[in-house]
Amino acid sequence: MREWGFLFFDNTNFLRHITLKDTHQLLDFCKRLGPSDCYHSAAYYMNPAAPDMSGKNWAGCDLIFDVDADHLDTPCKKEHDIWICSKCNAEGKGGQPTICPKCGGKDISKITWICNNCLDTAKKEIIKVLDEFLIADLNLNAENIFIVFSGHRGYHIHVEDEKIKKLDANARREIIDYITGNGVDPAYQGLIQLPGGVIVGPKSDDYGWRGRINRYVTRFIKEAGEGVLTEIGLSKPKRKLILENREFIAENLSSTKKFIPGVNGISWDLAKLKLTDWLKIVEAAIKLYAGKIDEPVTADIHRLIRLPNSLNGKTGFKTKLLRRDELDDFNPLNDTQVFEGYVKVKIKRSPRIVIGDISYGPFYDEEVELPMSVGVFLACKNVADIV
Predict the structure, then answer these.
(1) N- to C-terminal Cα distance for the chain?
(2) How much is the pTM?
(3) Do 105 and 99 contact (CB within 8 A), yes or no?
(4) Looking at 37, 62, 81, 294, which residue is catalytic?
């Protein structure tokens, strides 16, 4: 009942609207045509081979989440991502400029790399979405949830549960908003000012977004530097107040319902933080710490998703299917290698990569012999040619 789709090394066209009856047909198809990437629909159809959606007769869809390091603010991008101007060959690290700062050219290519740091960040994010939202809050059965390393820069979650298969795009959008904190109103979650002027808020052990607001604000108070506090609009005296007393504030937030604890000593100064200030802090904390997911993927009830345990054509790594108890110890740059032996490659330009706990590179215009998995990775990333 699923639609299948495939990409190929020598053809940019996406072949889709394919029906495969069983595993044997899938394997035979891949052996004969050698696709670079294999996809199947998250949706189920009565007629999956129909060339348009109206003729497929939609019958339900798994709930899919995608967390990708590309969408996360990881400092390591400034170290290993490279942009190159095709006109003057100027290059730099980090974010890709719209125009070349040297010649003003607009034809700029980018090498988007991976490392353990960005992959660990994506893993932590997928664990948060899974444990904190899907299981703890939405009470989805862990037996029906499958985690998949994408084979490149992130992870997917497949929820195959009968009670969610019929949800339409709007219902899935509600789940997205819940996970990302979109539309959370702190007043409805218990952050209010009482008639006597005391500001109170939710406890850390309150259910759902109430407790989450307390925990996120506590973390924000502990971690935010002056630059962040300035960005959210706090005055210099209030920034100083928070920075000098962050441990006291965080301790009281996590142990009492009052956002402004006590009535003596330092607490008199804390009264200078008004409800409007706390609302700014809550908004910033939600933006920083709420779930980070690729929202269009979850909302799309016709989405094609990468086939678990196939190879990713951008890396040659295995798109590995995992259960929750395997995720913590999973190392994607070690545990997804399938190629053996060695191969000689001509490398144009390559940042450093660690595969199988061994560091390779950086390389620049050189020919080297490497383990097959490393050579295939560099070739798939279009920075090297196999000799």
Answers:
(1) 42
(2) 0.90
(3) yes
(4) 294
